Amino acid sequence: MDLQQRINAFIKLGGFLQQFQNNEPVKNNKVEANDLFFDGFKHQIKLAQESNGWFSKKNIEFTLLNWSKALKENNISNWLSKYNFNNVNPQTVAVIMAGNIPLVGFHDFLCVLISGHNVLVKQSSNDMHLLPFLAKYLEIVEPDFKGKIKFTEEKLEGFDAVIATGSDNTARYFEYYFKNKPSIIRKNRNSVAVLTGNESTEQLENLSDDIFRYYGLGCRNVSKLFVPKDYDFQPLFKAVYKWHPIINETKYANNYDYNKAVYLMSEFDMLENGFLMIKEDQSYASPIATLFYEFYNSTEELKQKISAESDKIQCVVSQDFLDTEIPFGKTQNPELYDYADNVDTIEFLLEI
């Protein structure tokens, strides 16, 4: 199977996913193998919702929309154009996936297969339903993928390299367990936004998407703000109001109530608007329904701080602050070349 065959298979998968980006899926009879898979995937989406209360229909649809856009021929070709795939020696790469947001491990899965390697997937128990079904679709539209994709719930065996994502605690275990294998080990990271007080209403409304999408559970979700002294939070509170229906969702509301009670009993100073709490805190990882903030004195000092603590930060949302910044509202719309932790997964796979 050559590179173009692999690309074509994922383009077909993107076309398949495009049917499921709306509240009511719209069947496209031109999609290959659709009669075999369309109704089945609707069922898998339902199972994913039922098995994980954080996987709302809207969040699953948002994920599928993003991947249907990403898996276009021009996007894939542009992404892969700088790499040389001519000398790949097929290996088996184990991918240990997180389960915080739907299909969070799909990019690693894609990278392994598009590079010409075999993938051995160990999924999180929180996200078991979507990816195996999509893998079956790939095997039907490109039969040469058969035998190259395996899933396991047992101890990982028979692999040559590993890509593992988890918490700081599990990362220490991964680093010890996989010390003799080529590996990418990912730890906890969070995203931040740098505000000046001069942001437009549109920018702040877009920022609210970075905060609330996936309930804030993703490493690309903004969990902390850096703001200047005497920053006025009222424009921000007004701008995020479009997300206020989120408080009607049980799991989010339970977390909001719990964290608010903890803060009140601890007599912490905070601002809140009925569905979001904003608290001054040095940490990067804020609890659900909470946004941390920290004051900065100068942009140069802040740049130094962010550089020194870059191993804790996934994305920086800002305008005209850093060369690597993400525009407001775009953290959960990464391009194929936006690698987690800024580690080039394809480059790693081409060197093993």
What labels describe this entry?
alpha/beta; single chain; 352 residues; Aldehyde Dehydrogenase, Chain A, domain 1; 2 domains; 12 helices; 5-stranded parallel sheet; 6-stranded mixed sheet
Q: How would you characterize the overall build of this protein?
A:
The relative contact order is 0.13. Strands 8-9-10-7-6-11 form a six-stranded mixed sheet. The chain has helices at 3-17, 34-51, 57-70, 73-80, 106-114, 130-141, 168-177, 201-212, 234-239, 250-265, 299-308, 345-351; strands at residues 92-96, 118-122, 149-151, 161-165, 183-186, 190-194, 222-228, 271-272, 277-280, 290-296, 313-317. The longest helix has 18 residues, at 34-51. The chain is globular, with a radius of gyration of 21 Å. The protein has twelve helices and eleven strands. It has 352 residues and is an alpha/beta fold. It has two domains: 3-188, Aldehyde Dehydrogenase, Chain A, domain 1, CATH 3.40.605.10; 190-317, Aldehyde Dehydrogenase, Chain A, domain 2 (3-Layer(aba) Sandwich), CATH 3.40.309.10. Helix content is 39%, strand content 15%. Keywords: NADP. One of its GO terms (biological process) is bioluminescence. It comes from Winogradskyella endarachnes. Pfam families: LuxC.
